[in-house]
Amino acid sequence: MADVGYVTLVLALITSIYSALTYFFGQRQDRTTFVESARNSLITTSGLVSLSVIILLHALIKHNFQIEYIAAYTSREMSLPYLISALWAGNDGSLLFWAWLLSLMGLVVVLQRRNRGTALVPYASAIIMLTEAFFLIVLIFVSNPFTELSYLPADGMGLNPMLENVGMIFHPPLLLAGYAGLTVPFAFAVGALLARKLDEEWLLTIRRWILLTWLFLGVGNLIGAWWAYVELGWGGYWAWDPVENAGLMPWLIATAFLHSAVMQRRRHTFKVWSMVLVILSFTLAIFGTFLTRSGIISSVHTYSESHLGPFFLIFLGITLFGSLGLLLYRRKWLKSDAESEAIVSRDSTFMLTNLLFVGATAVILIGTIYPLISETFSGAKTELGVSFFNQVANPIFIAIIVLAGICTLIGWQRPSNKEMIRKFLWPVGVAVVSCVILWVVGMGHWTAIVIFSLSSFIIVAIVFQWVKEAITRHRTSGSGIASSFFGLVGANRPRYGAYLVHIAIVIIAIGITGSSSFDVQTEATLEPGESATIKQYTLTYENMEIDHVGDTKAVLRTTLTVYHSGKPVGELAPEKWFYMNFEQPVTEVAIRSTLVEDLYVILMGWDETGAVAYTFMVNPLVSWIWIGGFLFLIGGLVVFWPDRRRSR
Amino acid sequence: MHPRCIPALGNILLRRKKFLIGGIAVIAAIACLSYVGLSGSTTYYYTVSEFIEQGSSVIDQNVRVQGQVLAGSVEQEDVGRILRFTIISDDGNDTLPVVYEGVVPDAFTEDNDVVVEGHLDSAGIFQAHTLQTKCPSRYVPEESGES
User: Which residues of chain A from 378 to 397 reach within 8 Å of chain B, CB to CB?
Assistant: First the structure.
């Protein structure tokens, strides 16, 4: 069967190249039969890639350890969800998964009944098929997931127990879907350039695609952060690691694009800029993959394989310079129709937001590849610590969220000065009052005070605006205040979805600020019955027990009784898990999570006398990151949800 | 060009200029921020051999060193709160003793690659405050056939 899987991939490569070429020449020479044939061949390609995925999945579930990939990532005792997750657990499988998602997206592009953008579909499909061909080439020549071993192992190595977390099921596929999805907007942008159809059509066609991929990437990154927090046992959720940055950068650029697209639709400006952003988001996804899988940047996540580098680098060069060159060649078709008016207007805040997003991405990019830069230019390899990213990127992010608040208040027309004062009065007032209150209650951390006050400004600004619009609706339509408030969402989903997303981002910012500014940590070695204290918590170590789970797993559990300000609030049981097949034990942290703060306990070690060593942490406001993440998803879905009327 | 367009054009150019100046100001601010951030955050990154080559010039300097954990060198003290081990270069010729205090990552095992951050003390022992291991997400077992 493994051979069949491989042959399927080879056939898919042939049909994808055929499809791309026929699409291109068919459309150029206006031959409908060619385009029709190309379309069939795209459908065949996606069928073939799906078939090879099914073959690999079947082999995974049937434990065909003859296939090296399956022997390396699965074992007989793994449950079905984790067996399926092995599809993206390794380098080869994840590339196949990527190629598969891309082929499915190509399928959706050609099968969608659309009322716009039809003229662009042939060129866009050609680009999608070319990208598909690239991944198939990599799969066939470097990362073949169907490679067979010369012998049949009795059992596989299994998934590393650290990865046995629900995060493994959602985080990698979401990110890969986001990366793959960025191809579609890129394909339509290049298609529009090739077809010289540079009105708003391509933009409207890809709006929902980019929203979807943006949601995938955003939620994928958040789940990754949550996973790191609950599983990795260092009390943090983001480390500015190259792999994390590779997931964040395309998301930032996609976010910038969502904002510039609004400008292009409303004002017919930012045309070249939007196009550049689409190109950048796609190439950054490829670049990030190149960085993390070629091994040229050392990362805690690095894939062990390193033959992929040249392939990705060549593909990156072609896509980046090819598309930018084409853009330059077509620049006279991309003149703005209108000029921005006032310096204080949504136009200027949108432009500033865009610049800041791109600036933040540039900073993160430089920080990520800094070891390469320093090695090339000074000979000595230097790396940038977390402090660089925190010092440089965080102020930019704060400026962005402040702009989100200001932008909501300004509106599309330049408001009169009197009106501006009226609009800003409440939000600024609340911000000043919260600043004073935080200072009076003795919050010593200045940056935190500033960020919390600014956050209150933005939330009040958005809620204020929303309520104002609801009151207007209530007056004109006569519906109740509450139903007007929520009825607005249905009436203008993009706007109110965006409000929700903005509030979500501010909530996440509050969580990040709280947990990074006020975290407390202590270590203690305890005998049974002894206690340690951290902030208002007292933890008493009760006992240790060992449970055997099946034949291959043992759990060492230590139980602590927790008191908060003298009152018992329950027990925590940090654990170590031991496996027969794995040398390393897995540390399972225990977390007591409330809206105010998380108590986070790590079991460090123990000795034969019965003493146990712990690290205790109190991380304030962490829950708000996940709550904000959830609201982000809701807001994103509100924007994304299809509009039944489809007026435009 | 129609004469009536000329003042409008002037206006556009003026507005353009405003936006341009604004944009340049933002870019300059970000560049400035990055420069300040860079100067305080760079850490030298060495392999064990490169680090040994530096001799005593690196004593008390905050650096990162990458090496392999020598099999049999790992010792725990104080109920697992202090970890002592030796890292060796790829060719096995250079060694560096390391002391680390803190939470040990799960992926820390003998023969694995680690990156330690900290400083060399005058006794020639590397005092690490951070210990990073390769994340196991793309863990490749040693016995995976011919590779």
Answer: 380-385, 387-388, 391-392, 395-396
Q: What percent of chain A has pLDDT over 70?
A: 94
Please state the pTM of the whole predicted model: 0.91
Note whether B80 contacts A234, CB cutoff 8 Å.
no
CB contact under 8 A, B145 and A68: yes
DSSP A558: E
Inter-CA distances, A517 with A218, A395, A448, A618, Å: 24, 15, 7, 11
Contacts of B22 in chain A (CB under 8 A): 343, 348, 351-352
How far is residue B45's CA from residue A26's CA, in Å, rounded to a whole number? 54
Nearest residue to A105 (alpha-carbon basis) of A159, A161, A9, A186: A186
Amino acid making up residue A89: A
Looking at the fold, whether B72 and B118 belong to one and the same domain comes out as: yes
pLDDT of residue A623: 95
Let me know whether B51 and B119 are in one domain: yes
B27, part of any domain: yes
Domain span at residue B22 reads 1-42
| Reduced 3-state DSSP string for A575-642 | EEEEECCCCCCEEECEEEECCCEEEEEEEEEECCCCCEEEEEEEEECHHHHHHHHHHHHHHHHHHHCC
State how beta strands B82-88 and B75-77 pair: antiparallel
Same domain, B122 and B72: yes
Rounded to whole angstroms, the Cα distance separating A232 from A144 reads 30
Q: Do the beta carbons of residue A219 and residue A174 sit within 8 Å? A: yes
A contact residues 249-308, partner B, Cβ 8 Å cutoff: 298-304
Same domain as B33, residue B55: no
Total CB pairs under 8 A between chain A and B: 162
Tens-digit pLDDT profile for residues A475-514: 887 777 778 777 888 878 888 899 999 999 999 999 999 9
Residues of A in contact with B64 (CB under 8 A): 383
Our count of domains for chain B comes to 2
Neighbouring-strand partners of residue B83: B76, B100
pLDDT in tens, A50-74: 999 999 999 999 999 999 999 988 8
Contacts of B78 in chain A (CB under 8 A): 525, 613
CA distance to partner chain B, nearest, from residue A126 (Å): 33
B70 in the same domain as B38: no
- Give the type of residue at B110: E
Q: CA-nearest residue of chain B to A71?
A: B144
Whichever domain contains B62, its CATH number is 2.40.50.140
Best B41, B45, B117, B129 member to test A by mutation, with max A CBs in 10 Å, is B41
Q: A-chain residues within 8 Å CB-CB of B147?
A: 68
Residue of A nearest to B104 (CA): A604
Q: Which of B17, B103, B110, B131 to mutate to test the interface with A (most CBs of A within 10 A)?
A: B103
Instruction: Examine the domain organization and report whether B34 and B67 are in the same domain.
Output: no
Together in a domain, B99 and B127? yes
Would B145 be classed as within a structural domain? no
Residue B22 lies in a domain: yes
Best of A350, A361, A384 to disrupt the B interface (most B CBs within 10 Å) is: A384
The complex's ipTM?
A: 0.82
A229 — pLDDT class (breaks 50, 70, 90): very high
Residues B19 and B54 in one domain: no
The answer to whether position B37 is within a domain reads yes
